[in-house]
Please model this.
Amino acid sequence: MANIGFIGMGLMGVPMSSRLAAAGHQVRVWNRNSDKCLPAVKAGCLQAGTIVELAQQSDLVIICISNADAVSEVVLSADGLCSIGDGSGKLVIDCSSIDPQTTRDLAATLRERTGMGWVDAPVSGGVAGAEQGTLAMMAGGEADDIERIRPIMMALAQRLTHMGPVGAGQTTKIVNQMLVSCNVLVMAEVMALASRAGVDAARIPEALKGGFADSIPLQLTGPRMANDEFDPVKWHVRTLLKDLDMANELARRQGSAVPMAGLGAELMRQHASRGYAESDPATLIRLYRE
Model:
């Protein structure tokens, strides 16, 4: 059993930390808004007062927060991970989805100042996967570090794949999000078109199940689109927009053409600008109904 610190009590962080506690690990949690820690505490986690306190009492520190700025603050701020002193033997596992170069820079700075190692291990599978422990985890880092965390991460994921050095996990998550985001955008078009043509759109996921057009997003989000079921929010439009913007920036740096991701980012931005940034992507159907 491991001493684990978990930073970030959002849609994913609460079920992930709760599952780790249920697996028998000692889990300390921290969130900028401390009230958001309460569900995890009720599930058996301990609440840390500061990031430094959490890290000093943990062997592994998992981060699962919204964007690169937030991760940078957790690592570099005056009371962040870089302030813990000697962190030799400790390991950060960043499950956030952020830019690969930012990941490499933060990992190098943290190791230089504290001796802590770094694995970037973003996840795919959404809230349902976090609750059920069926996430797909793509990891970048040293092979020994990946093997060290593998048995612990199996409480959260059905699969942990080592993709290469630090940053490789984030690159893999970006391409994952390109597929997911473009899929859900086309799905919104499909549901709206089918409805206008007189088809019961709610039956499309059932009709296509097992065929080449099937996907997990279709089965999970398609019925919600067709039935205008947008609550509770399972994921956020702003998250997909952030990831598509990262995809386009990565492609620009690499000189690679990504026209679908480019168009997808602009459609997602248009939808977010209409007040849907914090909404579930099932609301994308309103792009074509309104």
